């Protein structure tokens, strides 16, 4: 099998607040896929960083009365810790507020400017005269000029999807002061996105994004691509534009370059990794971005065009997922429908949410509902009753009478062969990110394993001393099947997989599926994963409502 070299990224969390369980969907989806790729022997570098610039960062730090640099450093540590506790296997978690990102940003800007893709012109903008600042699109709200839906941001309508400028909003209001902004002119720099229309059309239809997303992007082509404003006026927290004292790069200019900066930082830590192998225009490696559907425009149009214009490679694929709702409602801190990662972790095992999301995730960008009642039922039924019960019910006899030594004979090889042959189909499902179908197939096998034990009832056979070896063979088969199931579940349940490797006294590898444990001793089974009780969910939601408060918007 040919080993592939891959770089995988998640979209960068914004550095002005805590991560909540909706954010974890993407980190978990990408991590499952990365862990599967590593089990196949592929060389995968997995990175992420905090998106640390913009007006929202500036305002939030002012609200906290600390320097922006101090705030984003604290948030980065918190985000990194949350991801680590959820088993997200990043090789590097960094920040866009880094020297590596600054250097690459200046280099890319210089290349684009030299090749004639940067334009300058005066534009009219909304200005908050009370706060003495120009208003970024996300700090203006008003009525959509197309569908007339109220309470829409100044760049696009969440209701109908229309892209527009804040000047087109009807009855705009400043989110910061609540006042009606005035119009002022300012000189700005623009990236010539329309110059890449043909290049982008070809790339988008090459299979680099899902068909449903390509169809969405096609709508923007029909409307006509527009030059992209990449500058912002002071006051602003970010990187200054060269040869300018009052102009800064727009956060969405440097945020995706943060992928490159984070990888360059990893290359500094590991001298065996070549930056150009992964980002050079002739790169033969694979580059994958996992993102949410709310940032398609930036990643599927702006980002590949910037890379093309500055003569770097374009992504191999961009994998887009949907949003998360909680009990059917939009996740909202102000409405009390939000559970921070730290709150979840204080009440529940992270593997439980990883598994539940896996049962919902597919290769499509459909929204996913975290229904807490269904969450309890699914985890208790599948993980506790089917998987862990299989290990628990079979290990006791083996330790009681045979000191943990498994039988050297495979009593019923037909069922074992059926389990290991499933690796081809389950592997394809993991590869295609059809995790929901993969979990379904794995649980079908778990049902078969438990039915096998029930059918042969080794506890009855073991009552006769002269048939205990026969009972050992059946109980041992239960352990063999548990091992196969845990190999399949290892990308999804890293904590349970680590425990299972200690219990089974062996590593769980995809390559070892065909070889059952022979002449082997297992350790005693200990109950470390327990059923979810409704009281735990109640405690988690109560903590969320008591301690979690709104933070300022998105990256702008």
Automatic annotation (TrEMBL):
**Cell compartments where the protein resides:** Cytoplasm
Its Enzyme Commission number?
Answer: 6.1.1.10
Ranges spanned by the short sequence motif 'KMSKS' region, renumbered to the chain: 330-334
Please state every residue range assigned to the domain named Methionyl/Leucyl tRNA synthetase: 6-394
Please name the CDD domains in this protein's record. Anticodon_Ia_Met (cd07957), MetRS_core (cd00814)
Residues where Zn(2+) binds: 144, 147, 157, 160
User: What is the predominant subcellular site recorded for this chain?
Assistant: cytoplasm
Q: Which cofactor does it need?
A: Zn(2+)
Residues recorded as binding ATP, renumbered to this chain, are 333
One Pfam family of this chain:
tRNA-synt_1g
The family annotation for this protein states:
Belongs to the class-I aminoacyl-tRNA synthetase family. MetG type 1 subfamily.
Protein task: Is required not only for elongation of protein synthesis but also for the initiation of all mRNA translation through initiator tRNA(fMet) aminoacylation.
* Protein name in UniProt: Methionine--tRNA ligase
What species is given as this protein's source?
A: Candidatus Blochmanniella chromaiodes str. 640
The organism's taxonomic lineage, starting at the top: Bacteria, Pseudomonadati, Pseudomonadota, Gammaproteobacteria, Enterobacterales
Tell me what gene encodes this: metG
